Give the backbone structure.
Amino acid sequence: MKVLKFGGTSVGSVENMNAVMQQIADGHEKIVVLSAMAGTTNSLVEICNYIGVKNKATALLHIGRLEQKYKTVVSELYKQEDNKKAAALVLENSFDVIKSYVSGHFNKDAENTILAQGELISTKLFTLLMKEHGHNTTLLPALDFMRIDRDKVADQYAIKKNIKVVFDKYPKSTYYITQGFICKNQAGEIDNLQRGGSDYTASLIGAAIRAEEIQIWTDIDGFHNNDPRFVDNTQKIDYLSFNEAAELAYFGAKILHPQTVMPAKSQNIPVRLKNTMNPSDPGTLITSESDGKGIKAVAAKDGITAIKIRSGRMLMAYGFLKNVFEVFEEYTTPIDMISTSEVAVSLTIDNNDNLEKIMEELKLFGSLEVDKDQSIICIVGDIIKEEKGFASKVFNALDDIPIRMISYGGSRYNISVLVPTVHKQKTLQALSNNLLNNQE
Ligand code: ADP
Ligand code: ASP
Ligand code: MG
């Protein structure tokens, strides 16, 4: 069985929902993971922000607008009156939930419940559409089987176990629809897999059922060699290895949620990226194989903070780095890049929640320099196959860029540089012009 995930744009209009139905209804059994309709999660985040600051009037205004948008969708999506009524009820239920928090108690649990309504609505509307067109379809509630543990990490063991139970409980059919993104946490509350998490849902389900293939259907014809939102002339990549795709996703390629690759890789399940608007294009295929074409692509991750600890007295001392790392461990803050010299160590983090406390403790080791608003630019490929001259090619390409840190040799798949975010676009474009698009 295949698992197909359709993103926000793919289900973002009546026309696109009908296109997705045409695409999937080929008589082959499959699981279909859907995101919320495009823009919905952003609207729900905004609504939560207004509720959070007790701006009730503006929250209600935005809720009203979103509800109206969905009423228009429902009026155009179905032909049969009873489906229009059933869909209206879906909207009423979800919007009642959202409205109930405007005046009530608001906390993280409430916020997650509000955010979940986007996927709950899109999947219920889509299931009704499939049924109206006579397609044998069952809605599998993701909240019945998707789990995260106390560290907010997907609980693959529980997911595998739960999904079997859910399959036995719900009617057998050809098409199974489920929600991306949403899950339950250890406390049994509604939670989610972070923004863009529907890709991760598809990969987790694919691994749990040992799917034949995981397909991520989106609004572009596959993985490009650079970020098309910032760079001209990006090119589609036909094949990527799991390792290459994982590095790119982790370091900011928005087309895939950062954790998507690992579950698929663990079961050696191919991941195919496809364009819902251009289904005949073969897209990008991600497998265990690398096609050995040297430098493949670059990606950028924003919101990085660089911390430099300068300590002539202690740095080379036995145990110094261990002590530094322990501070980050204590505040459960992962380190992305690290670079050392005789007198200083620089490292980067992407989560500033505990920055003040971390700095308080690091001060004991020496003087600190902190630079916020940095971006990691990650250059990925099977770099060993580039053999000699790889590093010089990268540095020549970045001649004009003030590089803050470099990391090379950590894996054979990536070289990363840290630049101030104001220089990100220029850096990405320089890499496309001088490195990626110049390969013979
Ligand atoms: P979906 O809603 O389908 O999940 P996303 O917006 O999350 O879609 O991901 C697709 C978008 O990712 C593309 O429209 C593109 O702008 C962006 N993107 C960023 N980096 C890349 C890349 N390297 N290759 C392809 N798309 C990328
Ligand atoms: N709807 C969620 C988001 O916008 C999840 C997803 O689209 O993958 O982040
Ligand atoms: Mg996405």
